[in-house]
Structures are given as C-alpha cells and as structure tokens.
Amino acid sequence: MNKYRITLNGKEYFYHAANCDGAIDKLSNRMVFGRPLTCNIKLKTYDADTRGGLWATYDVDGNTANVDQV
C-alpha cells in the first residue's frame, strides 16, 4: 500500500491504496452528511510506465483532480 495525495478544488485528501485508481475509488466512496462527495469521475491521463502507480489526472464532477504518490 502506498500513500496518495488527491488535490481537488484546492483541498488535499490523503489515502492509502495500491495505485491511483484505488485512491480515487476511496474518494468516490466518501460520504458528507449522508451524501456522496463526488458523482462523476473520468480518467484523463495517467503514468503509463507504472500503470497509474505514481500519478494520474481525473475529471471529478467537472473539476480536475490530481492524484500523486507521496
């Protein structure tokens, strides 16, 4: 398990996961006041050499989220 930082709308979220996909999945499962924090998540780009193990960029509800290994 690696530690990943997700930067979304100026806020940083930290999660332990196997790769960037696992970290963004944990963000998508986060609930705030009983409602999901995010709805639509789409992959934009990722580090092809490590299959998303080091960094990735996602489109989250129309905003850009950067995921990188810390």
Summarize the structure.
This protein has 70 residues and is mostly beta strands.
Identify the strand order in the major beta sheet: 2-1-7-6-5
**Count of all domains:** 1
The average pLDDT value, as a whole number, equals 90
Our Rg estimate from Cα atoms comes to 11 Å
* Counted beta strands: 7
Largest sheet: 5 strands, antiparallel
Strand content bin: over 45%
> Residue ranges: pLDDT <50 for 5 or more in a row?
none
Label the structural class.
mainly beta
> What is the general shape?
globular
Annotation field: number of helices: 1
Helicity range: 10-25%
Element string (H = helix, E = strand): EEHEEEEE
| Distance between the ends | 12 Å
Describe the structure.
This protein has 70 residues and is mainly β. The chain has one domain. Helices cover 13% and strands 53% of the residues. The chain has one helix and seven strands; from the N terminus they run E-E-H-E-E-E-E-E. Strands 2-1-7-6-5 form a five-stranded antiparallel sheet, with helices on one face. Strand 3 and strand 4 form a beta hairpin. The model has no long low-confidence stretch (mean pLDDT 90).
Question: What is the strand and helix layout of this fold?
Answer:
Blueprint: E1 2-8, E2 11-17, H1 20-28, E3 31-32, E4 35-36, E5 41-46, E6 55-60, E7 63-69
